[in-house]
Amino acid sequence: NTIQDVLVRKARMEGKETCWVPGTDHASIATEAKVVAMLKEKGIKKSDLSREDFLKYAWEWKEKYGGIILEQLKKLGASCDWDRTRFTMEPDLSEAVVEVFVKLYEDGLIYKGFRMVNWDPQGRTALSDEEVIHKEVNSKLYYVKYLIAGSKDFIRIATTRPETILGDTAICINPNDTRYQHLKSKKIIVPFANREVPVIFDEYVDMEFGTGCLKVTPAHDVNDYNLGQKYKLEIIDIFTEEGILNAHGQAYAGMDRFAARKKIVKDLEEAGLLEKVEEIRNNIGYSERTDAVIEPRLSSQWFVDMKKFMEKNPQVLDAIMSDEIAIYPAKFKNTYKHWIENIRDWCISRQLWWGQRIPAYYLPDGTFIVAKTAEEALSKITNHKSQITIGDLRQDEDVLDTWFSSWLWPISVFNGFKDPNNKDIKYYYPTDDLVTAPEILFFWVARMIMAGYEFRGEKPFKNVYLTGIVRDKQGRKMSKSLGNSPDPLDLIEKHGADGVRVGMLLSSPAGNDLLFDEKLCEQGRNFSNKIWNAFRLVKGWKIDEKLEGKNNKTAIAWFDARFNASLAEIEDHYKKYRLSDALMSVYKLIWDDFCSWYLEMIKPGFEQPIDKQTYETTIDIIEKLMKVVHPFMPFITEEIWHEIKERKEKECIIVEQWPGIKPADEKIISEGEIILEVITNIRNIRNAKQIVKHVPLDLIIKTKNKDIYNKFENIIKKLATINNITFNTTDIEGATGFIVKADEFFIPLKGEVDPAKEKENIKKELEYTKGFLFSVEKKLSNERFVSGAPANVLETERQKKADAEAKIKALEKSLSQLNS
After folding, report:
1. Any idea what the Cα angle at residue 410 is, between residues 77 and 349, rounded to 5°?
2. CB 274 within 8 A of CB 199
C-alpha cells in the first residue's frame, strides 16, 4: 500500500488526475470461518441457523471489522479516493458478478460437472488449484502387505495414506515390470475391508517408487480417479465433508482422518501386515485460507472452461509477453507464461453461505436454468411452463469463489457492467498501475487480464508491480497463524508512519523477499528526525540583511548541480519502477549532500547571523527536497511545508508541482567530489593524529589546477579548519601527505607527531595499498575480464590502478623523509 501511495502521490504532483480506488473483498472462506467462530463463542451452531439468519450475523461482523483495514490505510497515509470506496458484495458489484456468470454460461464457458476437486475439510468447501499451497513436509511411507486371493502369498504396497486403504478398488502395476507378471488375472484382498479387487496394468505406475505396486483409491486421488474412469473401477468415498470416516470406514467410522491413520497403522502392525515404515519428505497441499490439509474429493461443482476461454482470448498471454502489459520485475513473465500454457479449469463454486449465490435455479425434476433472477429463470422454461411456479424453483445453495468478483474489479469499481459507457469507465479504463504480491499473480492479476479482454476487449492496466514477500528473520513468510507478524499500527505508534514506510521501502526492491527487522523502521524514524532537525536548524538562523552571501555561492551552485543530477536519477528509477532505489537516492541527497555537506558549508558560526540571500535560497532548497521526499514521507513533509511559511488553505504539498529536471552542472559536481575527498582526508588525519577539530592547520597543495581549490577555498577552510592554503611544486619535508586524483596535499604538523608511530601508520597504509593494487592488477591481467567488461568498468579499474600507484609513491616518499 505504501508503494501504491508513492506512485499516486508522485503522479498527482506531476499534474495528472489521479484515482486510487480503495476497497475490500468479502473473502468468503476466511470471513465465514470468522463468523462461525464468533457464533460458537455465543453457543450458536451454524447448522442451527437458516441461511438468512446466518447472513445477518455475517453482515454484522462485516460492519464491525470490515472497515478496519481501510482505517489502517489512513493511518499509513494512503491518499485514496475515499469517496469511491467499494466492497465486492455491495449491490452493483454483486449484480455484475451474476451478469458475468450468466453470460459466460450462455457462451459455453461455464459448466457444471462431477469432478475431483481440492476439498478443504475445515472450511468444508471446494477450492481452486491456485488456492492450494504446496509445502514439503516430513512424512512417512508405510509398506503394507496385501494378500493375493486364493493364495498365502502377499504383495507389498507402499502408501503415505494408509487411512484410505478402505477405499481401495484395484491394484495397479506397470505392464513392463517383470516382478509381477504372475499377478495377471489375479485378485487382491484389501486389508480389513476383506474386499477382492482386480489387478490392472498401466504404464502410469512408476516401477522405481515404493514397491512398484500402486493401491488405487478412485474417490480420494485425482490420478487414481483417472485410472478408475479408464478401467471402470468402483468408487468408494470413505470421508465426510469434514474429513471424518463414514460408514465405509467400517470399524474406523466416526474417526478423524489423521486419528484413523494412527489407529489403522497400529492395527496393521498388530495383524502382521505392516512390513516397515520409511521417513520421507512429501509435497502436501494445504488450504490457502485455513491451512488445513487438502483432501481430494469427488464433487459436483461449477467450473470455468479455461482452455476454451484462452482460445477465445489469446491476448491474455500475448499482452504480457509483448510487454503491452509490463510486469516488474520481468522475471515473472515466464512464470505467468508457464501457468497460462498449463492452465486448468477454474472451480468457481464454494459450499458456503457468505458470497454471491450462484444464479442457477433447479426445477423439481433436477434440471436447472441459469438466469439473473428466479423470474427470468421462469420465463426461460419452455416445457410445462404453466405447471411451474416460482415457488417450485430452488436456487443453487453454493456461492461463487471470491476471486470471481475480484477479477472484475477494474471494470466493476467504475460501474462498467451496469453502464459500459459511463464517463468514469471511459476515462480511467484501462488503468495505469497495479501493485500486488507475486503469490496472487494467478489468483487475481491473470484473471483481471482475462476479464479485461473478455468483457471490454482491452487490457485492464498498463503496469504490474509485484512486491517482495515480507519474511521474518528465519525466512518464514509473515502470517497470523505463525504469530510472527508485527502489528503495523504498533510500529506506526513507535516509529511514526513515515518511519515505517521508509524503513520497509529502503529494503524492499520489487519481487525480492524482505527479511523484516524492526531496525528498518528505526532507520526510517532516524531519517525523519534528521529531516526535522535540519529544518529546525535553518529556521532557527537569524538573518542579517546587510550581509553579502558571496561566500556561499559555490556551495549553492554545487548543491543545485547535485540536486538536478539526483532528480534525474530518481526519475529514471521511477520509470523503471525501482522505487527502493528511488528512495535511496532521495535518502542520500538529503542525508549526505544536504545535511552532511551543504548545511555545513553555509551555516553561520555560533549565534552569528546568515545573509538573507543564502537563507532564502536554502528555504527554497528545503521546499524542493520536501517535494521529492513527499511521496515516501507524506506526514513530515506536509508538516514542514506549512511550517516553512504561511500558506493558503489549499496550498498543500500533496498537490504541489513536482520539481522539473534541469541539466546538471557536471563540472562542479566532479570538482565537488574532489573537494569533499580532500576534506575527508584532512579529517581522517586529525582523527589519526588525535588533533582536535578547532586547532587550525595549514594545507599545501601540489597541483596543476589551482582554480578548483581557489573556487572552493572558503569551503575547505571552514569544513576542515584550515588556516592557510598555499600552492607548491616541491615536496614538503616533515609533512603528512595524501593524494586525491593527480594532486598531492601536505599538512605540516610542526613536531606534533610521534615519528615512530607515524612510520608504523604509514607502513600499514602502504601494505594495504600495495595489496589493493595487486588485486586490481590481477583483474586487469585477466583477458576474460578485459574482453568482457564494459568500457566504463575498465576505465574505472584503470583509474583505481593509477590512483593506487600514485598513493604508494607518496607514502614511500613520506616514509623516506621520516627515515632521513
Report:
1. 110
2. no
